[in-house]
Amino acid sequence: MRAFICAAAMLCAGAFPALAQTAPSPAALTDLAPTGRLRAAINFGNPVLAQKGPNGEPRGVSAELAAALAKRLGVPLDYVTFEAAGKVFAALAKSEVDVGFIAIEPARAAEVTFSPPYVLIEGTYMVRKDSALKDVGDVDKPGIRIAVGLASVYDLYLTRTLKHATLVRAKVGGAAAGIPVFLEQKLDAAAGVREPLDAYAKEHPEMRVMKGAFEQIRQAMGTQKDKPAGAAYVRAFVEEMKANGFVADALKRSGQTAPVAPAGM
User: Fold this and answer.
1) Gap between the Cα atoms of 172 and 251, Å rounded
2) Is 260 part of any domain?
3) Which segments within the chain are labelled E, that is strand?
């Protein structure tokens, strides 16, 4: 875990489209910035959402959304960075951060309140080019072993839905954390987020990524479960950021092509 302390106004000035300055209620401000600062958890384990700048600072759509929210609230921003979504979830559940950027998943909903999704990404499989597994429907069979990143959203999803195949978990989480285990143990498939799997396969022509998806991953902002005013404010904020083009522009600035989630999803 690494923290980056920033002045939200400086981050936002000149970098983002004009934002409507909707003032938060006192209850929302207390929920979202109980220390007088917004502590935003950023997951570097998913390169669609966050990338490291020259000094390791967060960049990308989640970092820009956090900065925009801090500006709305009128408080300084502290980025708290992690390498896996499972660690973001744990920090949120323990109130070590105020907001986090993770995927919506039923197993997390008991301790985190999710906003509507702002980005949609796909969970899919990478296999060797000569594999007999051709599409995602072929993978859930007896004897098939699948590498996954520990406590990732696709680990949670596959744990819940697979009937026959076996999951082999990496020691860490992340959008493509299963690849080293897949290679080292000569497993049948590596599960992960499409974009980093595609990037790996592009550099390793002996691999291919399946065209289909086993899951549509809905990336959202999360708040603690006992913060209803803050959660309501974040829900409205995310819907506005989708509608006014902020999310699409932030994705484009960071070189990402994942689609923005539809309004009201």
Assistant:
1) 26
2) no
3) 2-6, 38-43, 51-52, 58-59, 77-82, 99-103, 112-114, 119-128, 145-148, 166-169, 189-193, 207-209, 215-224
* Cα–Cα distance, 152 to 176 (Å, whole number): 10
Judgement on whether residues 26 and 103 belong to the same structural domain of the protein: yes
Locate the DSSP E strands across 87-182: 99-103, 112-114, 119-128, 145-148, 166-169
Q: 130: domain range?
A: 120-215
Report the DSSP beta bridge partners of residue 125: 191
Q: Provide the greatest CA pair distance for the chain.
A: 60
Residue 184 lies inside a defined structural domain of this protein: yes
Q: Domain tally for the chain?
A: 2
Helices then strands (H, E): number in the chain?
9, 13
pLDDT, tens only, 50-98: 999 999 999 999 999 999 999 999 999 999 999 999 999 999 999 999 9
Model pLDDT for residues 116-164, shown as the tens digit of each residue? 999 999 999 999 999 999 999 999 999 999 999 999 999 999 999 999 9
Residue 103 one-letter amino acid: A
Q: Are residues 56 and 95 in the same domain?
A: yes
Single pTM value for the model: 0.89
Residues 6+ apart with CB under 8 A from 59: 50, 51, 52, 53, 254
